[in-house]
Amino acid sequence: MATELKNDRYLKALARKPVDCTPVWIMRQAGRYLPEYRETRARAGSFMELCRSAELACEVTLQPLERYDLDAAILFSDILTIPDAMDLGLKFVPGQGPVFERPVKTHADIKAIKRPDMISDLGYVMNAVSTIRKALNGRVPLIGFTGSPWTLATYMVEGGTTKDFAKVKGLVYSDPKAAHLLLDILADSVIDYLNAQIEAGAQSLMVFDTWGGVLAPHDYREFSLRYMQKIVDGVKRDREDGSYIPVVLFTKGGGQWAPLLADTGADGVGIDWTADAAVLRAELGDKVAMQGNLDPSVLYAPDEVIRREVKRVLDAFGPKPGHVFNLGHGIHQYVDPAKVKVLVDAVHELSRN
């Protein structure tokens, strides 16, 4: 794993060091908008079989790097691997998304949850990490990731996707002790999971708090932020070989809480397109790197509009070190792949020193 990085812009930016141009990667950069991904997914037979095959997960992780001059690769996997390993009967239903056959409903259900073993239950993820890291051969850094405890809990309690979060918020308000027990179990599992990804070769980590933005401010602090703080404290970022593994926290719809995320000691904070990057950049200063925050829908626009909006984002973050360009959330599946090249090339061209 000691191969020297040929492109370290991304890690330099997270360390708030000067770079020759702003690094860029894209959330869900390996995904359904790419025809080559759809072909590999069809060969795999199912989404989870694609995740469980180290060779196929590696193949799709590298696909966008063959098309675009990206500055990082991200492990191809899913945020629900931990709940899946807890034997809740995860299935992906066409047109419906993830569904759990045995959702968590009661305090007794939570107490009965099995904390996953990183080798016997989730070893396939670590195999994918090590396979991808080897295949990259120092080309760009590899990002490992997880869902936040709150986000994982929403799926486990709701039994799948939801619009109103009635069941999980009902648990929070009616039995907060049970909610905290669930979140503690998940936080401990996430820490084990991320540390195992580091051992397998991940060079940076992302925590996706996809549903933190649905919480009221006081609930966000108690039921989401508190457990991301536990993760930041529990991840072994300083390595024996002298390397350092940065951690980026991202709460969708949570731009107002970026200062709280920065206070956790995380290395980077992601913001979505609803946040004012210039305001947050001024408020956070040099305390933390920032990632974001182009609206994914800009990629449906003409090329000149994409370039204009890229410049708008770059100008908002300003010239100081510590910006990783990204979309404000995952790329849409119906985006023309050619538009992504326009975006990536514009970021490098318009930010070059």
Topology:
Elements: H1 9-14, H2 35-44, H3 47-52, H4 54-67, E1 73-74, H5 81-85, E2 90-93, E3 97-100, H6 107-111, H7 123-136, E4 142-147, H8 149-158, H9 166-174, H10 176-200, E5 204-209, H11 217-234, E6 247-251, H12 258-262, E7 268-270, H13 277-284, E8 289-294, H14 303-317, E9 323-327, H15 337-351
Parallel strand pairs: 1-4, 4-5, 5-6, 6-7, 7-8, 8-9
Antiparallel strand pairs: 2-3
Helix pairs in contact: 2-4, 4-7, 7-10, 8-9, 8-10, 9-10, 10-11, 13-14, 14-15
Question: Which structural traits does this protein have?
Answer:
two-stranded antiparallel ribbon; seven-stranded parallel β-sheet; 12% strand
The tally of helices reads: 15
CATH architecture: Alpha-Beta Barrel
CATH topology: TIM Barrel
| Mean pLDDT over all positions | 96
Gyration radius over CA: 19 Å
> How is the biggest beta sheet arranged?
7 strands, parallel
Strand order of the largest sheet: 1-4-5-6-7-8-9
Helix content: 40-55%
At the first level of CATH, the class is: Alpha Beta
What form results from the Cα inertia axes? globular
Class from secondary-structure proportions: alpha/beta
Query: Unreliable segments (pLDDT under 50, ≥5 consecutive)?
Result: none
Number of strands: 9
Q: Could you give the distance between the termini?
A: 31 Å
As a percent range, the share of strand residues is 5-15%
- N-to-C order of helices and strands: HHHHEHEEHHEHHHEHEHEHEHEH
